[in-house]
Design brief:
- There is one protein chain.
- The protein has helices spanning about 45-50, 75-80, 95-100, 115-130, 145-155, 175-190, 200-210, 230-240, 295-300, 325-330, 340-345, 350-355, 370-385, 400-415, 430-445, 460-465, 485-495; strands at about 5-15, 15-30, 30-35, 60-65, 65-70, 80-85, 165, 195-200, 210-215, 220-225, 260-270, 270-280, 285, 310-315, 315-320, 330-335, 420-425, 450-455, 465-470, 475-480.
- About 35% of the residues lie in helices and about 25% in strands.
């Protein structure tokens, strides 16, 4: 049976924000439908309305021609609707099998949980996914990628599944894991399930989706056939303008200065000795496969992980850093990759998140905070970084991912750093917001900051960096200038440690 999901005039209003505006369209089983749009276009809001997290202000939705009104995600699951969000929703202390069958563990006729049967059933599901994990393993002991796959397996294991939605599911997955996921998605499609796929990665859309539904400013624009639509046409529909060559249009810094930062043989429990230099006004790219050690060396530099060997020299002077706070005091700020776990403070407002690193600056000798200074800083940062929020008091978790990221970068820049480390800054961000971040990165360099850019997107690191360091197996495998960089050379150094041009 091929299922049908229909949205009819769905609107969702928040104070000062119209998140969804009269959205109407259909999604059919037997095909993979992408949701595409800039951050804040309404994609995730529509999924939350469908999932029962939000109640629509107006409109209704029908599943197989029957009107539904889910008051909670649990009700949606009971009706066969599952949404896999970017943020993991699993219980770390439980095993893989316990997470997969959470709330529906097999029991004996006496009501006793049958752990053996759960593990056997989970093992079959794991085998279908082609994953090298065991049902008995606690989820907390798995990598982020495998934790994500556990959540996907949990949804796919439900027999009543009719609709499954993926919100940026591949952000933490390797190429092999992505292919395993795509295999499962194709199977669900062929079974007649409705599969909705939210992603900003154009290459993925062409690999796995049949159609693309485009959203802009809370409105539904149109649905097009993926194979018949070029990327530039999709981008123009979602952002309302032609971005052209997103890198050639950037106002790059052409005056790179003297050496600002020297890293000499820095190592930790998680990375082998690494050495490099960073100049004033330079964007230094770090490339390599997931697990190559790029993030780990930066965590050692800023004191998030204990440095075992080596030294850090800033402005010609050796400095000692034992914590990210000390790094910040020296003028080195790192914006982490994991926005939810290490970036935002979910219980605070936009204002609170921007000002959290400035408490010392905004407090007097007896600890009284200058609220006026905080308000001025928040309003200045919101304007400077074009944060889309109705007001500074808005909870940061209620903003789109791209606007959350802007707040985190604004917080770091408010401390007036000399070195800015950006770890996958555009992860999970749409192409329109990416262009804003690229412009910001160039502006930071033009102001004289030394910028370190960690990115797994090869066009991004090639398009932005003045120089690129490639890591493999927890150490540096090569260095390439911007003029010499190509995807083939970076992949060669990142995968086998050899430069094809040597």
């Amino acid at each position: 049976m091929q299922h049908i999901l229909e949205f009819q005039n769905i609107s969702k209003y928040f104070p000062g924000v119209k998140a969804l505006d009269n959205v109407s369209f259909k999604a059919s089983g037997g095909e993979v439908l992408a949701f595409l749009g800039e951050n804040g276009a309404g994609k995730s809001t529509l999924l939350k309305v469908l999932n029962g997290d939000y109640q629509p202000t107006d409109g209704k939705y029908l599943l197989d021609n029957e009107e539904k009104h889910f008051r909670s995600p649990h009700e949606a699951i009971e009706a066969g609707v599952s949404v896999i969000y970017q943020e993991r929703q699993i219980l770390m202390e439980l095993s893989v099998a316990e997470n997969i069958f959470l709330g529906r563990m097999p029991v004996s006729k006496f009501g006793v949980i049958n752990t053996r049967e759960a593990n056997e059933r989970a093992a079959k599901i794991i085998a279908d996914f082609g994953l090298p994990i065991r049902p008995e393993t606690k989820v907390k002991d798995l990598s982020i990628a495998y934790q994500q796959m556990v959540e996907i397996m949990k949804a796919c294991s439900r027999e009543n599944l009719r609709v499954i939605c993926f919100d940026e599911p591949t952000a933490s997955l390797s190429d092999d894991e992505i292919e395993s996921l795509f295999k499962v998605i194709r199977k669900l499609r062929d079974e007649g399930k409705i599969v909705i796929y939210v992603s900003h990665r154009m290459s993925e859309l062409h690999q796995i989706t049949d159609k693309v539904a485009i959203f802009k400013d809370g409105r539904y624009v149109d649905t097009v056939v993926t194979k018949d639509t070029e990327d530039k046409q999709l981008i123009k529909m979602m952002v309302g303008r032609d971005l052209g060559d997103i890198y050639k249009n950037l106002d790059r810094n052409k005056e790179i200065g003297d050496v600002l930062l020297e890293v000499k043989n820095v190592s930790s429990d998680y990375v082998k000795p690494v050495s490099f230099t960073l100049r004033r006004g330079e964007v230094l790219g770090f490339s390599g496969l997931v697990g190559a050690g790029r993030t780990e060396v930066m965590r050692a530099i800023v004191g998030a992980d204990k440095m075992k060997t080596g030294e850090v020299i800033l402005n010609g002077e050796k400095i000692r850093i034992r914590s990210p706070k000390e790094a910040m005091e020296h003028g080195i700020v790192m914006v982490p990759e994991d926005r939810k776990m290490q970036g935002i403070l979910a219980n605070l407002s936009v204002d609170g998140n921007i000002n959290i690193s400035l408490l010392d600056k905004h407090s007097n000798n007896i600890g009284v905070i200058d609220r006026k200074a905080e308000i001025e800083q928040a309003e200045k940062s919101i304007k400077e970084f074009n944060v889309k929020t109705p007001n500074k008091e808005k909870k940061i978790v209620e903003l789109s991912g791209g606007n959350q990221q802007k707040c985190i970068v604004a917080r770091g820049l408010a401390t007036n750093p000399q070195v800015l480390i950006l770890d996958e800054p555009t992860k999970g961000i749409d192409v329109g917001a990416k262009s804003e971040f690229y412009e910001m990165i160039c502006s930071f360099a033009k102001k004289g900051l030394g910028v370190i850019l960690i990115s797994s997107e090869l066009p991004e690191v090639i398009g932005l960096a003045d120089r690129i360091i490639v890591m493999r197996s927890l150490q540096v495998s090569g260095e390439i200038s911007a003029e010499e960089a190509s995807e083939d050379r970076l992949l060669s150094l990142g995968m086998i440690g050899e430069d094809e041009n040597e």
